[in-house]
Amino acid sequence: MGHEDKDQWIVKCPKCGKIEGSCRHISQEDVRRLVRLLNTGVEVYPSEEEPDELEPHVHETAPAKPLSQSIEPRYKLQDLVLAPATREGIEDALAELRHKKLMYERWGMKRVVKKTKGLTMLFAGPPGTGKTMAAEAIAHTLGRPLHMVNYAQLENMWVGETEKNIERVFAHALEQRAVLFFDEADAVFFRRGFTTMPWMNRDVNVLLSQMENYPGVVILATNLARVLDKALDRRIDIAVEFPMPDAAMRKDLFRRLVPKPAPLAKDVDYDLLAQKYSLSGGSILNVVRQAMRTSLRRGKRHRITMADFVHAADLELKKSSLMTTDHLQEDARKQKIRGYA
User: Fold this and answer.
1) Do 236 and 263 share a domain, yes or no?
2) pTM for the full model?
3) I need a labelling partner for 119 at 20 to 30 A (CA). Which of 90, 129, 323, 327 fits?
C-alpha cells in the first residue's frame, strides 16, 4: 500500500470495517504506531487469509445507556425531618427560586451578573441523612422533575465522549426544566488540582461551565465535603449540611417511619430507642423493617415489641462493624487444613 493511501487505510478495521477514532479491535495507540511505521517506509501488503465476517461497528450497535434517571418527586418539604440550619438553607434556596424575577429585574441583580443565573447547591453529610429526599422535596415544591445523575455513567473511555455526555445531560434537563441532582460529587471534584490527566481536566471544566450556565437548579451531594476541590467554592451558591439527627429528631423519625397500621405492643418506647441508638434516618428505616421481620417470624398475629426494635437496632449497628471486618485475618489464614497451612 502506498504512502498516499495512508489516510484511507487508517479508517478501516479488518474486523468491523471502519474506525471512528478507534474501535474495540484496534486502539488509537495501535493506529498511531502503524502510521509511524508507514512514515518510516515500512510496506504493508494485504493478508492472504480469509477475512473474518465483518462485525457490526461498536458505535452503531451499542445500546444507548440512559445518562440520567428522571423521577417524579415523591416527598414534600414537610415530610422531611431536618436540623433547623438544614431546613433554613433549603428555604433560602426556595426563596430565591420563587422570587427570581423580582431579584433579577426589579431589584437589579441582572445588572450585576448580566444574566438570570441558576442556583447551584451543595448537600453535604453522612449517608442516610436525607440529601436525596431533600432534592426531591425541592423539585416537588418547584413542580419540576428530578434528574438523578451518577457521574460514573457519564464517563466514557473515548476522549471527548464524556464531554458530550455532560452536555447531553444538561441539554435534556433544560428541555425538561428539571432539577439536576449529582450524587457522589466527591468522586468528580476531589482535591487534586483536579487531575494530571488533561482530558479529565477538560471533562471537569465542561461540567463546571455547564453548571454555571444552567438557568435551573443543580444539586451536588457528597459524603466527603472535606475532600472537594477549592475550585467549587465560588460556584456553589448555597451549601447545606445534613448532620446526623439528634435524639429529638430520631424520635420524630421513628414516629414517622413506623406505619400507623403496624401492630405495636404497648411497651414500644420511641424515647428510649432515640436516646440509646445514634442512627441516621436511613438506618432507622432499616430498623423498622427488621423489627417487622422479627415479629413476623413468630406469626402474623403477633405484635411488634420493644424487644424486636432493640434487636433490630443492635443488628443495624453490627452491620457497620461487619462491613469493616477483615474476614481473612491472620489467625484464619494460618489455620491448617489436613496438615497444610
Assistant:
1) no
2) 0.73
3) 129
